[in-house]
Design brief:
The complex is a heterodimer of chains A (602) and B (316). Chain A is α/β, with parallel strands linked by helices. Chain A has four domains: 194 residues, Pyruvate-ferredoxin oxidoreductase, PFOR, domain III (Pyruvate-ferredoxin Oxidoreductase, domain 3), CATH 3.40.920.10; 183 residues, 3-Layer(aba) Sandwich (Rossmann fold), CATH 3.40.50; 49 residues, no CATH class; 119 residues, Rossmann fold, CATH 3.40.50.920. In chain A, 37% of the residues lie in helices and 21% in strands. Chain A has 21 helices and 23 strands. In chain A, the strands form six sheets. Chain A has a six-stranded mixed sheet, sandwiched between helices. In chain A, strand 6, helix 3 and strand 7 form a beta-alpha-beta unit. The two termini of chain A are 41 Å apart. By secondary structure, chain B is α/β, with parallel strands linked by helices. Chain B folds into two domains: 249 residues, Rossmann fold (3-Layer(aba) Sandwich), CATH 3.40.50.970; 33 residues, no CATH class. Chain B is built from eleven helices and nine strands. A seven-stranded mixed sheet of chain B has the order 2-1-3-4-8-7-9, sandwiched between helices. In chain B, strands 5-6 form a two-stranded antiparallel ribbon. In chain B, strand 1, helix 3 and strand 2 form a beta-alpha-beta unit. In chain B, helix 2 crosses helix 8. Chain B is globular and about 75 Å long. Classes of the chains: A alpha/beta (602), B alpha/beta (316). Chains A and B meet through helix 1, strand 9, helix 8, helix 10 and helix 12 of A and strand 1, strand 2, helix 4, helix 6 and helix 10 of B.
Chain lengths: 602, 316
């Protein structure tokens, strides 16, 4: 948003994007306002990205929702807000610093006492939100409904499409008592009617470019869950843990429509075991978790590697170790995903870069698991799981797959055939009649080609190599990742997973200021894609930007992997552990410091 | 994989209706012992597990089970080597977790009858929680616990069923922890078929296996199976050939009475042998199918992608 409020008479300014931060408590329904705004943007063919924090308690505790809406490309949820909507004194005090200088703070004057020192820096507007909400919908509602009143204020401020918003509100309360819908709409209209425009500037989004198809609006966990369904996954098992639980709830609710089942198990170990059992039964099954739950699953994961069983494991990363920070983001599970467990156990690890990518990564993961008979981990994170984005609707008829097992009789079968090309063998599920009368056993013991146990050094060597070779064959088929920005220059910012957007925005901002910066997002964490060494060779500095600790030796988890792989001293880390997403300005500042320090050391 | 593919029924997304190839026109005969035996067992000579394996073969022969329909699952332990000795589809999973693994097969493949074999360590120690929950959920399968009162594979440590005073490498003064009573635990966990037998009475073992297999639900057999290497003579008091006594469950025992089963389990060793408890409660398999039928009724006639499309239409 470029138009800052001016001292003169209020006017209507055209803007191409806006960042709105709503701060309150977790029970105020501020996620709902954010959801309405995001969905409205999706329907209006605008780009949108959200960011939220929630406390890890059941009720109460400060919570924020930030939404960035733009007529152009939106790459991150934004560094600083144009508008802050504060419900309480603590919301006001804690978040005023997230406003751009000259930004607008709208506060509930029934709860907030503004600080006179800040009045000169930010445009203040007090609205008795609580009182006016009660006035609009009656005294019984107490604090309920003030989120919708606030949504009305925002709608007025940004001249949002009221019929579309009204429809969204009606849809949200479909099936509820009509009086609830009426109350919600009354609160919204009361907020919208507040004479805001006579006090401060209001805004209008410039028309966004028309896109081809429709947009769908969802968060990362929904995209992963629906992606699995599209991929043909029909069985899953899990144990509740934040922020993974959304996916298991979605699959439990949706799978029966497709004839599938999702089982809530007694623990994490039972859930990975049940999923592997179903995979053994002939379909690719899914399990997933977060934080400590992933640690518990590693023995089962090792069995799936050893027995060469397809399996999908979803890890929605949160702050660790141990119970850590359950509702904060961290990218600190890369090591356990790639290396976790005892023994040499190569597996596949994918990291979706944004919400849309979550959908397609689920399908890619299932197809890799099937083709290579290997467990595939999907490394998402808390930020991507809760953030809402709009993206082009997939062609479902085209992407949906049927994974029904083929149980036709076969003449002969070796589950661990050492002569198989690239070591790639397929699992023959029970129910398959084998005409030779020789049936396979799948096992976690080192085994011969029929799956029978062996202590032979030669077989352990060739079977270990078989399990490795098939992933090397997979690596050779992976696409070389695309550099964002020129393929050669001074600084390359390397990231993985949810940091793709902020890194691209950092490139845009740096290049606009005349700096030579490009970015690279790595989606295939294990095996790594080909061609990285050539990309790195084109830059003076390679900085791996991660939300994890710099570690004992100064490198984050991906940086450590890349240094081990390429032995390149110019690969260095930019890390942080505050449990929040990257701000673009922080990335650039840290990169600048690194460049300066690095040159001094050289 | 094959060039002898047969005509397949239409493929379907419904996990509970797996398309299976139609039978070849010739009549399938029951399997012979030779066709069903695989590797020679690695057990010590005289081990009780030999008779359990022999009776499993007998069950397969007698009930004319087909090769491809037999699924044998095990965890870790001496007894859990079972799948390698059976010429059929089998899985040797990790320690203590054979039940959830087998549940995954059972819930997605109703065309198979899943047999799980394991020892007292698998069932009552490392996998104790899974025993409770598989029983509670009543997932259709048969679980044979080959109980030898000792950890044999790791060479004589105390097991959860070792009696007080049993001297092992981890209790050189004799076991001090109160042992688990398998029958009582299974009754309280909600298992719907609970039986006790011993490897020295082959006819009885087979009888229990058949009854367990015919039960629609989670059927569990505790089969005493002597470890001649580390706990010789443990079960002599139950073996008439060794001067012991084999007490069948009394004819007037009401198998549907939980309290009666609990009381029966209170008897000092050798106790009773036979079916302690049996009841019919809907299986999780059936409950899930019911949920699916209701949910699928609402999307009748739609292809999978069209069902998903309805979700996506709501997210626009």
């Amino acid at each position: 948003m470029t138009a800052a409020p001016t001292g003169g008479a209020p006017k209507i300014a055209k803007v191409s994007e806006a960042i709105i931060r709503i701060a309150g408590n977790s029970q105020d329904g501020i996620q709902a306002i954010g959801g309405f705004l995001a969905r409205l943007a999706g329907r209006s063919e605008q780009e949108v990205m959200t960011f939220m924090t929630i406390p890890s308690t059941i009720s109460g505790g400060p919570s924020i929702f930030q939404v960035r809406i733009g007529s152009g490309e939106v790459l991150s949820s934004g560094d600083d807000a144009d508008v802050l909507l504060a419900f309480y004194q603590h919301s006001y005090q804690d978040h005023i610093s997230s406003l751009k200088p000259g930004g607008i703070v709208v506060y509930d004057s029934d709860h907030v006492e503004p600080n006179p020192d800040w009045k000169g820096q930010y445009h203040h507007l007090g609205v008795p939100i609580s009182g006016l909400t009660v006035e609009a919908i009656g005294g019984t509602a107490k604090d309920k409904g003030k989120n919708l009143y606030a949504l009305g204020l925002i709608a007025r401020m940004f001249d949002l499409n009221v019929p579309k918003l009204t429809k969204l509100i009606e849809e949200r309360f479909t099936g509820k008592d009509q009086s609830i819908v009426n109350n919600a709409l009354s609160a919204f209209h009361a907020g919208y009617s507040y004479a805001l425009g006579s006090v401060i500037d209001t805004f209008q989004f410039v028309e966004s470019q028309k896109r081809g198809g429709h947009q769908v609006v969802m968060n990362g966990n929904e995209a992963l869950g629906f992606g699995l369904i599209a991929a043909g996954v029909r069985f899953g098992a899990g144990y509740p843990i934040t922020p993974w639980s959304d996916i298991m709830e979605l699959l439990r609710r949706e799978l029966p429509k497709y004839g599938g089942t999702f089982v809530q198990c007694e623990d994490e170990i039972a859930s990975i075991s049940m999923a592997i059992g179903a995979s053994y039964g002939g379909r690719v099954a899914v399990t997933g978790s977060s934080g400590p739950g992933i640690s518990l699953k590693t023995e089962g994961l090792g069995w799936a590697v050893m027995s060469e069983m397809p399996l999908i494991v979803i890890d929605i990363q949160r702050g660790g170790p141990s119970t850590g920070m359950p509702t904060n983001v961290e990218q600190s599970d890369l090591n356990i995903a790639v290396f976790g467990g005892h023994g040499d156990s190569p597996r596949v690890v994918l990291a979706p870069a944004n919400v849309e990518d979550c959908f397609y990564t689920a399908i890619e993961a299932v197809n890799i698991a099937r083709k290579y008979s290997v467990p595939v981990l999907i490394l998402s994170d808390q930020a991507i799981s809760t953030r809402i984005e709009a993206f082009e609707e997939p062609n479902l008829e085209k992407v949906c797959q049927d994974l029904t097992p083929d149980l036709a009789p076969i003449p002969d079968h070796k589950p661990y055939d050492l002569a198989a090309a690239d070591g790639i063998t397929r699992h023959a599920p029970p129910g398959t009649r084998i005409m030779s009368g020789k049936y396979p056993v799948v096992t976690g013991l080192e085994h011969d080609e029929m799956g029978h146990p062996t202590g032979s050094p030669k077989l352990h060597m060739s079977m270990t190599a078989k399990r490795r070779k098939k992933l090397q064959a997979l690596a050779a088929t992976l696409p070389v990742p695309q550099v964002y920005g020129p393929p050669e220059g001074n600084v390359l910012l390397v990231g993985w997973g949810s940091t793709q957007g902020p890194l691209r925005e950092a490139v845009d901002r740096a290049r606009a200021a005349g700096d030579s910066v490009s970015a690279l997002n790595i989606r295939h964490i294990s095996p790594l894609p080909p061609g990285l060494e050539n990309i790195f060779a084109g830059f003076n500095h390679v900085f791996v930007v991660e939300i994890n600790d710099e570690g004992l030796y100064g490198y984050g988890q991906l940086a450590g992997l890349l240094r081990a792989r390429f032995c390149d001293p110019k690969i260095r880390g930019i890390n942080k552990t505050d449990g929040l997403t990257w701000k673009v300005k922080d990335i650039l500042q840290r990169a600048q410091t690194n460049v300066t320090e690095g040159l001094r050391k050289l | 994989m094959s060039d002898t593919k047969l005509e397949m029924p239409p493929r379907t997304g419904d996990i509970t209706s797996v398309p299976t190839a139609p039978l070849p026109t010739e009549e399938r005969k029951g399997l012979t012992k030779k066709e069903i035996a695989a590797d020679h067992p690695t057990w010590c000579p005289g081990c009780g597990d030999f008779s359990v394996l022999a009776l499993y073969f007998k069950l397969i022969e007698k009930r004319k089970l087909w090769h491809e329909k037999i699924t044998t699952v095990a965890g870790i332990g001496c007894s859990s080597r079972f799948p390698y000795f059976v010429q059929a589809h089998g899985a040797h999973y990790i320690h203590g977790r054979a039940l959830p693994f087998a549940s995954g097969i059972s819930l997605s493949r109703p065309d198979l009858h899943v047999f799980v074999f394991g020892g007292d360590g698998d069932a009552f120690s490392i996998g104790g929680n899974h025993l409770n929950h598989t029983a509670r959920k009543n997932i259709k399968m048969t679980y044979v616990i080959m109980d030898n009162w000792v950890y044999g594979l790791t060479k004589k440590q105390t097991s959860p069923t070792s009696p007080l005073g049993f001297k092992s490498k981890t209790d050189i003064w004799g076991a001090v922890d109160h042992p688990i009573n398998p029958m009582k635990q299974l009754v309280s966990a909600g298992a719907t078929f609970i039986a006790r037998t011993t490897h020295t009475n082959p006819n009885h073992v087979l009888q229990m296996m058949e009854a367990a297999m015919d039960h629609d639900g989670f059927s569990v057999i505790e089969c005493l199976s002597e470890c001649v290497e580390f706990y010789e003579g443990a079960f002599d008091a139950s073996n008439p050939r060794k001067g012991g006594v084999f007490n069948p469950v009394p004819a007037d025992h009401d198998v549907t009475d939980e309290m009666a089963a609990y009381k029966l389990a209170d008897a000092a060793f050798p106790g009773y042998f036979g079916i302690f408890y049996k009841t019919n409660r809907p299986t999780k398999n059936a409950n899930e199918q019911k949920i699916n039928a209701t949910m699928q009724e609402k999307v009748k006639g739609l292809k999978d992608w069209q069902i998903l499309q309805k979700n996506f239409d709501r997210m626009k």
